[in-house]
Design brief:
This protein has 103 residues and is an alpha+beta fold. The chain contains 2 helices and 7 strands; from the N terminus they run ββββαββαβ.
């Protein structure tokens, strides 16, 4: 999947990312990436996945139990690669739910 955000200058940023589904909702995780800073300015995103384009909004996840479940889903889905590429702990990670948006 690719997440499309808008850079400060209005240009599109397409970011390949890892996504997990917990209780039927999609979640992503990042450090202090440029696309995360884009979402802080404007939480509206588009997700390219399975040949489709979905208009969503990113919602920060702060609830500790849900954050733990997201972390566990990432580890289960991506295995050793998750530990290698995402050495930051769930405490330091920005976790986001990709929610539907009306527009």
């Amino acid at each position: 999947p690719r997440l499309i955000t808008l850079d400060e200058d209005g240009g599109e940023r397409r970011t390949k990312l890892w996504l997990v589904v917990v209780d039927g909702e999609g979640y992503v995780r990042t450090g202090n990436s440029r696309w995360f800073r884009n979402l802080q300015r404007d939480p509206r995103v588009q997700l390219e996945i399975g040949g489709g384009l979905h208009r969503l909004r990113a919602v920060s996840v702060t609830e500790p139990i849900l954050r733990g479940r997201i972390e566990g889903a990432m580890r289960h889905k991506y295995g050793w690669q998750d530990a290698l590429f995402h050495p930051f702990s769930s405490v330091d990670a920005n976790m986001l739910r990709l929610a539907p948006r009306a527009e």
